[in-house]
Design goal:
It contains nine helices and 18 strands. The chain has 324 residues and is α+β, with helices and mostly antiparallel strands. The protein is globular and about 60 Å long.
Length: 324
């Protein structure tokens, strides 16, 4: 009897969401091979070949303890792995060149596999761009906030007058700020006063939005069209502005996604060719759902742990190939 085809999990070693998906696959006796791209090329060997008229790359990934034949893989769960690490013996500028070579080889060989993906990294990277997301969301039928990206203080003041209400500022690109301390600083969404606008706006791009009145917020996790909506009710000003800044002041729950919103979300995801997304919405006092952004590699383990929504099982269903 032929061995069951494995699921390939590409993620950091300490990733709660990946752990939960692996646990679900193990419960179903689905073989799993897991590695982090940071292990390549020092601890991981890639040997693949491609022949004329072949359906794809064929070969082996081997970490010295176990191996997987890429042609046997049934699905890939690709979740924020590290970049390849090059040996200290390689000096610059060759180390950076070698890292880029390793990154491109591994990423592009894997992404060419004709299998189920959560999510293919090429689609994932395009889907992560916030300014483009607003266009895709509006085109898909979602409500979005009035927004401005500028480095012109005159334009910023004009936008504030047009909104004539509270404003927030948020990063265009996610990530953390390394200030040299023990932990990198998260640049959070924050309220701003237009009276403070000055020429410092010219120093970089600023992403301004109208502040949306919130009855509560929703972290909507979508897996292959299935909707898992966790609610977040902020009990402090910090939590209501950016819930990531005050976890102790949040009440968690669940809600049902209106069908019109669910249909628009599915159109949004189809436009990017992705099957997983971690969406942030505000629900206004009038029960209107307002789209903020989607993280195509966003965290969700805390949503399942706080609410019991079966998100890991939905991942495993898709990766295993369970019929709907």
């Amino acid at each position: 009897m032929a061995a069951a085809r494995p699921v390939l999990v590409v993620a950091e070693q300490l990733d709660a969401s990946a752990d939960m998906v692996v646990d679900q696959l193990n419960l179903r006796d689905v073989p799993v091979t897991r590695f982090d791209s940071a292990d390549f090329p020092e601890q991981l060997t890639l040997t693949v070949s491609h022949a004329p008229n072949a359906p794809g790359w064929r070969g082996v990934l081997d970490d010295g303890h176990r191996s997987v034949r890429l042609q046997d893989v049934r699905a890939v769960y690709y979740r924020r792995p590290g970049r390849p690490v090059i040996a200290d013996a390689v000096a610059e500028p060759y180390a950076t060149w070698a890292q880029n070579q390793a990154d491109a080889a591994l990423l592009n060989v894997l992404s060419a596999l004709p299998v189920r993906w959560i999510n293919n990294p090429h689609s994932d990277r395009v889907a992560a761009h916030k300014p483009q997301q607003l266009v895709a969301a509006a085109r898909s039928g979602l409500t979005v906030p009035r927004s401005l990206i500028t480095n012109d203080p005159v334009a910023a003041c004009a936008f504030a007058r047009k909104v004539d209400g509270p404003l927030i500022c948020k990063p265009v690109l996610g990530g953390r700020l390394d200030t040299g301390g023990e932990r990198a600083l998260m640049v959070a969404t924050h309220r701003i006063d237009p009276a403070d606008f000055d020429d410092s706006i010219r120093l970089t791009a600023h992403y301004f939005q109208e502040s949306i009145p919130k009855q509560y917020e929703v972290r909507l996790v979508v897996v292959d069209g299935h909707m898992f909506a966790g609610t977040l009710l902020g009990r402090s000003e910090k939590a209501r502005t950016d819930w990531r800044t005050d976890y102790e002041a949040i009440e968690y729950g669940t809600t049902i996604v209106p069908e019109s919103v669910a249909a628009a979300v599915r159109r949004f995801m189809a436009s990017y060719g992705i099957v997983f997304g971690s969406f942030d919405f505000a629900v206004t006092p009038d029960d209107e759902w307002v789209f903020f952004e989607n993280n195509p590699a966003g965290t969700w383990s805390w949503v399942e742990n706080r609410t019991g929504l079966p998100i890991a099982a939905a991942h495993a269903d898709y990766l295993q190939g369970v019929p709907v």
